[in-house]
Write a structure and sequence with these properties.
105 residues; 2 helices
Length: 105
């Protein structure tokens, strides 16, 4: 992933990070800090998440696994939210992020 650009495109949310390809500008990741209640939990605690693009069939299989949710603020058929709270292994996060990268080349 040498050709990655990190962008902060939202004035209202200056800490939100977009991971995009330098060559084509396509997004493959969006890192955000959101309240858990926005993700369907009964908590106002904040949690860091990353949305990544994925295959609709894979999303339908994994979206209700612990730490994986239907995409927050993105197309739920093509994106998935990964909670960055330790519930998903670093290896699985890396695999999903690499897959998103490859899908958006």
């Amino acid at each position: 992933m040498n050709e990655v650009q990190v962008d902060y495109p939202f004035k209202k949310f200056p800490d939100y990070k977009v991971l995009r390809h330098k060559r084509n500008g396509k997004w493959f990741g969006l890192i955000m800090l959101v309240e858990k209640n926005k993700l369907g939990f009964r908590s106002n605690d904040m949690v860091e998440i990353i949305d990544v693009k994925s295959d609709p069939e894979l999303i339908s299989i994994i979206k209700n696994s612990s730490g994986l949710l239907p995409a927050y603020h993105m197309n739920k058929n093509h994106w998935i939210t990964i909670m960055l709270d330790g519930s998903i292994s670093f290896e699985q996060i890396t695999n999903l992020l690499n897959y998103s990268y490859d899908l958006t080349i």
